[in-house]
Amino acid sequence: MGFLLPAIGVALVVGVWFLVHPLTRFLPAPGEVWTEAILVLGESETYFNILRSLRRLIIGLGAGYILAFFVALAGRASEWWRRFFSVYVYVTITIPSLAVALFSLMVFGLSEVSVYISVATIIFPFVVVSLHEGFEALDARLNDMSRVYRLSTSQRLRHVAIPEMAPFLFAALRNAYALAWKILVVTEVFSAQQTGIGAEYNRAYDFFALDRLVVWVVFFLIVVFGVEFGLFRPWERRVFRWRAARDG
Amino acid sequence: MDEIDMIDQYIDIRGLSFWYRDQPQPAVRNVDLSVSKGEFACIVGPSGCGKSTLLSILSGLFTPQQGTVVVDGKTQFADGHRSDTETSPCGYMFQDARLLPWRTVRQNITVALQAAGHPEDTWEDNVRRHLRMLRLEGYEDAWPLNLSGGQRARVAIARALAIQPAFILMDEPFSTLDEVTGRFLRGELLELWQRTGVTIVFVTHSIREAVYLADHIYLMTAGPGEIFARESVDLARPRRYEDPRLTEIEGRLIDMVLDRWGYFNGGEVV
Description:
The complex is a heterodimer. Chain A has eleven helices and no strands. By secondary structure, chain A is mainly α. The longest helix of chain A is centred in the last third of the chain and has 38 residues, at about 155-190. In chain B, α6 (about 205-215) packs across α7 (about 245-255). The relative contact order of chain B is 0.17.
């Protein structure tokens, strides 16, 4: 089954951990981490921090994605706009995420806006590039069909362009989602508010609490994979059911 | 060449020329074409002669730089201008079925119905009727990718008919299908054409296909395309491919096109 190999992979890491931890002074035993996890799960702050991170992710990701969509659309509509925006794409794709995080924290200070902006800025260029490719891939033949049958603009968007772009929209969303988490926690580490998953990493580091850090990494993985398997995969399966039909 | 009946022409094209941008030569030049209502017209020409361009103009995709196009007494184009009068939509069959693969068979038809302004409460009945006509009952909710090439072509015919078009344009719709499926669908198409009385303009490079299908065949020169002959096929339907009279007409037409299509040394045609 699909879960067997990943399960073996996890078991291997835990096995090595179990064997190796007594040889070091700093690695906690798996059992200690487990106890710590139960403890952390009992704190109400835990849930507050997870939800706070999720909220920031959704707003930052949403804003960056929507902005990138319109920039890609403008670039599709005219060469002038494409060249106008390309400098923003090149710059944001090149600067280090850490610099973006520090910059927006310094400029926008304490407010939540600084976190949203750093997430949106980092994902923006990748979404533009990937949607640009999507627009390029639109089939002129389906466009002719829509014109001959006189489909209205909204019909063409709904029945032709968006379904046709769907693979690119999804690819862009997934990559942006993964990237957004990484920049989000970095920003949270440095944010003065000290809330969210990144802030928990920071606290674990301050106390040199490796067990706590491991617990929060695991929580992070659960949240990221939860969205992947609970939202993206079923959604994709539904949108692309016309394709799967061929095999089944 | 027959005398073209000037009265009661349903589709009437006069002196039509079209240039693609940045091309020194026109794609079609000075085309005259008259099709009466309910006619099955075939336009035959070699590849690259501008047949498809002609269909794109008739369907309203391109505006010709010269000439007039009148359909059902309503001017669509006159001397490089598109007329403002409301024109009825046409049905169109492309070389491929050109369905939306992410929409079901039913949705593919209803999207066209909605665009053509059919009221929503008529869709269901319309779809059912046309799918039955094309022997596709039970495939309403099927995805196009799950259908055979022949079935997809039939959905495309259903879509073209369902919008109750002023006429149907067909651009070599059976050329990508295997021989037996193609023959079968040609027979079905003729049956539907007789039942519905719709006007069909069918483009092909195959003289045999044209002779089998058409009332009148319009022969085009190699590009830039002009129509140089109109030939009638006065054979009762259903016709048979093996009919010697059909072969005879085919032979005569091939003789006519040989030098027009640039085969001076008796190259292969068909």
